[in-house]
Design a protein that fits this description.
By secondary structure, this protein is α+β, with helices and mostly antiparallel strands. It contains 14 helices and 6 strands. Strand 5 and strand 6 form a beta hairpin. The protein starts with a helix and ends with a strand.
Length: about 350
């Protein structure tokens, strides 16, 4: 019985804390109410602090609570006093348990947000507190495994991140900052709407563009069945990497027809619209078959000045082993070294930043 009395004491304190905001507002109009509430809260605090420090507790406050709640029942229906008293004690236990559980869950969500950039370990995109992201394939970790994932990532949160450590050479860049103070690495999926918005936000921030040389790493999200999350991301990634490799291969030639076309490809997909006024990312994701997607990219290459032979060379590279190997290496770096819970992921200023660049 003494244990239950203590639970009534703790539960009453929790309830008083919760109603404190309302009372504080009402006290603006009725100061007597505020004074009475403060008096009760002080008594509750005394009982609460003694109980949580495992000291003998003055039970008068708990008894006062029970007497206040049951005094009318004693007079009108005395037979109900005992079952209602039991119900009050059970309710107090539930309030304490729910509060403790809520605090634990809140702490878990806060730690996950700090270490992983999302408060939802299994479904990162469903966290309203974190940045907007396109999550990688959702996991099915149990409650204890979620804690393990959080603690496992604490060292990553504390370490100094350097973009250059994760380069898969050659690396294409978004901008041509003349005297950048540092480098940045932008990991993205061309089909991810958040990646598109993050890209646009970077272009709007001239200070960011001037401070950082931003390198692009394309990572099309794959699902467990082997398909891409966004149906044509794999095709875009192949042509992007083919252009990067060909630009590097011909950089010492008197003419480099492939120079900067990798960045131009992404820029068009993220910032331009087709003849029907549909953003190209949306068109690639929802309207284009694989054949249409590939033909569209080839048409752009011709529009940007490549000859038919040069377009064929890009296509051969895109479907060749070198690009396949490069994409596998990028996937290995992203999944096993950077280990984001979603993308876009940016590395700059010594930190790994998950989600939308704002």
């Amino acid at each position: 019985m003494m244990y239950n009395i203590y639970m009534v004491c703790i539960a009453a304190f929790i309830i008083l804390i919760l109603v404190g905001v309302v009372v504080a507002f009402l006290s603006i109009f009725n100061r007597d109410l505020g004074r009475k509430y403060l008096k009760v809260l002080k008594k509750s605090w005394h009982c609460f602090t003694r109980r949580i420090s495992f000291r003998k507790c003055d039970t008068s406050f708990s008894e006062d609570v029970k007497t206040t709640l049951l005094k009318k029942v004693v007079i009108k229906k005395p037979k109900l006093v005992k079952p209602l008293s039991v119900a009050l004690e059970v309710g107090s236990i539930l309030i304490v348990v729910i509060t403790v559980w809520s605090l634990i869950e809140g702490a878990k969500a806060g730690l996950a947000l700090w270490t992983l950039g999302t408060c939802n370990v299994n479904q990162p995109a469903n966290c309203a507190l974190g940045s907007e992201i396109c999550s990688l394939e959702e996991t099915n970790l149990n409650w204890f495994e979620e804690w393990g994932e959080i603690f496992k990532n604490i060292p990553d949160r504390l370490k100094n991140w350097s973009a250059e450590d994760y380069f898969v050479e050659p690396m294409p860049s978004l901008n041509k900052a003349e005297n950048p103070s540092t480098t940045a690495l932008d990991i993205f999926d061309p089909g991810c709407p958040v990646c598109m918005q993050s890209y646009k936000n970077q272009l709007k921030n001239q200070n960011f563009l001037n401070k950082h040389k931003i390198y692009l790493m394309i990572y099309p999200i794959k699902l467990s069945d082997g398909n891409y999350k966004y149906q044509n991301s794999g095709i875009i990634a192949k042509y992007f990497n083919a252009l990067t490799l060909l630009s590097k291969e011909t950089e010492t030639a008197s003419k480099n027809p492939y120079k900067d076309l990798d960045a131009e490809l992404i820029n068009r997909i993220f910032t331009e619209e087709d003849q029907d006024g549909v953003n190209y990312q949306s068109a690639f994701n929802n309207n284009y078959s694989k054949e249409t997607a590939e033909k569209t990219i080839k048409d752009w290459l011709g529009e940007w000045g490549l000859s038919a032979d040069e377009v064929k060379r890009v296509t051969d590279y895109a479907n060749g082993e070198e690009v396949k190997s490069r994409m596998a290496k990028i996937a290995e770096v992203v999944e096993n070294e950077i280990k984001p819970k979603g993308i876009p992921t940016l590395i700059y200023d010594g930190k790994k930043h998950l989600g939308l660049y704002k």
